[in-house]
């Protein structure tokens, strides 16, 4: 059916209920999003503080003094300043590939633990920074921490959650991101009047969410999928009983075992992931984070105070406007949690894309439109950009697939962060028409090519692609369950 509107109905309905244990476990894991969100929110705030700029980026302060008339859009244009923001995401990109190996070999929680510890070190280095080198090294450590946590947490949540609540529980990660952004905006607002101590506190407090996920990772159990993959079969069975709240887990456990056996036959997941049967998942693992960043959302999240100052807002007003958008971000993410398993992924993707397009087409009522734009992103492309790639891959390529998702996300986050101030200087607010063009493309892409995945067990996803009007031709043989059993795979060629 054109438009990708076919909804695959799995023939397998596993027994079990939503237990308090799985809810608490997923909430603790989701707190890892706090470190990513806090960093997104804090960097834009401190780079709008004159005392911070005077210490580390005096050329920007000088440019602000000289900026008049048509030159207003260029007053923050500094390659060194953008490197402060963007270096983190380049580090996260590289770290995500190492994280995929750690996640597969040692489990999801070990990746979370390592990410939290490294992020904590980076937060302390930034808080005590005396020169630009200390700032950049600290940002690189923060990036390594984010690369590991963002690689492992969405996969962890998708594997732990029951199919009927997988969307809502996975979006807990995005909810934590938005809370981290809001907390950072709030801290920036109060830190403004505290002099040098203010920006140091703002940067150093990133250690608080890092400590939360570090402690959380120490107490979290590992997922049944990961335990089976590492040969801990009996522990996996006990864990599955615990998270499903029933002893009758034979059918689901058998599917997990068979998925694991299939994954062990794949000696080179990075080669297997480019095979035809994985082409749909690979396409979305690349294009969803690509489009997510080209919505322009991180321009708002990184540089909201800078943008509002460019428009003539004072220091307090610009930070207050950023705080308002942070509140909208949190509230709209709650909307996504409520709606994602009720109305599905496609409906939110399409509605959010349409709303973002409308709000980017007119920049007269800036604060109101920015809030509407942020709301659209927060209940669609924000959480779903992490949810969908984490749930669509079979076990044998899941860590590699999530690594690709994170690395593409971080690559384009880096590019946007590095280029935005220069593009704003050259294109002024016509830059948002540039992003609006990509919103049109990505919304059409979802409408045509994304099947609905809500309530489909994570090990049953091949059936979704097999039923799709376009992707079905890439899945060879008869699909049974969530992996390629009874499918004769083509020989893997060296790449």
UniProtKB/TrEMBL annotation:
GO terms for molecular function: monosaccharide transmembrane transporter activity; symporter activity. The keyword Mitochondrion does not apply. Its main location: membrane. GO terms for cellular component: membrane. It is a multi-pass membrane protein. It is found in: Membrane. The chain crosses the membrane at residues 18-38, 80-98, 110-129, 135-157, 169-192, 198-220, 282-307, 319-340, 361-382, 402-424, 431-450. InterPro entries: MFS_dom, MFS_STP/MST-like_plant, MFS_sugar_transport-like, MFS_trans_sf, STP/PLT_plant, Sugar/inositol_transpt, Sugar_transporter_CS. Residues 25-454 form the Major facilitator superfamily (MFS) profile domain. SUPFAM superfamilies: MFS general substrate transporter. Keywords: Membrane, Sugar transport, Symport, Transmembrane, Transmembrane helix, Transport. Belongs to the major facilitator superfamily. Sugar transporter (TC 2.A.1.1) family. This is Major facilitator superfamily (MFS) profile domain-containing protein.
């Amino acid at each position: 059916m054109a438009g990708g509107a076919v909804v695959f109905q799995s023939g397998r309905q596993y027994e079990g209920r939503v237990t308090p244990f799985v809810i608490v476990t997923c909430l603790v894991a989701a707190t890892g999003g706090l470190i990513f969100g806090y960093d997104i929110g804090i960097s834009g705030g401190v780079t709008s503080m004159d005392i911070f700029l005077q210490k580390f980026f005096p050329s920007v302060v000088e440019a602000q003094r000289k900026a008049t008339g048509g030159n207003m859009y260029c007053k923050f244009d500094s390659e060194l300043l953008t490197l402060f923001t963007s270096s983190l995401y380049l580090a996260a990109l590289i770290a995500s590939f190492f994280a995929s190996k750690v996640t597969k070999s040692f489990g999801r929680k070990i990746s979370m633990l390592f990410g939290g510890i490294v992020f904590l070190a980076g937060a302390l280095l930034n808080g005590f920074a005396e020169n630009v080198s200390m700032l950049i090294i600290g940002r690189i450590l923060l990036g390594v921490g984010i690369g590991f946590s963002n690689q492992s947490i969405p996969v962890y949540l998708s594997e732990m959650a029951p199919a009927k609540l997988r969307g809502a529980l996975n979006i807990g990660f995005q909810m934590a991101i938005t809370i981290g952004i809001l907390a950072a905006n709030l801290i920036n607002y109060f830190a403004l009047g505290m002099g040098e101590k203010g920006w140091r506190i703002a940067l150093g407090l990133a250690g608080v969410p890092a400590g939360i996920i570090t402690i959380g990772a120490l107490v979290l159990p590992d997922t049944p999928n990961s335990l089976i993959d590492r040969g801990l079969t009996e522990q996996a069975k006990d864990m599955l009983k615990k998270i499903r709240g029933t002893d009758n887990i034979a059918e689901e456990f058998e599917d997990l075992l068979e998925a694991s056996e299939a994954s062990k036959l794949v000696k080179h997941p990075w080669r297997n992931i480019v095979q035809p049967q994985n082409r749909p998942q690979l396409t979305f693992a690349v294009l969803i984070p690509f489009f997510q960043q080209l919505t322009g959302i991180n321009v708002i999240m990184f540089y909201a105070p800078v943008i509002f100052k460019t428009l003539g807002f004072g220091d307090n007003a610009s930070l207050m406007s950023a705080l308002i958008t942070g509140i909208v971000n949190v509230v709209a993410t709650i909307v996504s949690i409520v709606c994602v398993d009720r109305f599905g992924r496609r409906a939110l993707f399409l509605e959010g894309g349409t709303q973002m397009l409308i709000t980017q087409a007119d920049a007269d009522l800036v604060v109101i439109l920015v809030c509407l734009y942020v709301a659209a992103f927060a209940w669609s492309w924000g959480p779903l950009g992490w949810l969908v790639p984490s749930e669509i891959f079979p076990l044998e390529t899941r860590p590699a697939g999530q690594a690709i998702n994170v690395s593409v996300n971080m690559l384009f986050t880096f590019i946007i962060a590095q280029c935005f101030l220069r593009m704003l200087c050259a294109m002024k607010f016509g830059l948002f028409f540039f992003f609006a063009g990509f919103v049109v493309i990505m919304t059409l892409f979802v409408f045509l090519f994304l099947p609905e995945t809500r309530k489909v067990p994570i090990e049953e996803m091949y059936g979704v692609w097999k039923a799709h009007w376009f992707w079905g031709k890439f899945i060879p043989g008869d699909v049974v369950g969530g992996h390629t059993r009874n499918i004769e795979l083509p020989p893997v060629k060296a790449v």
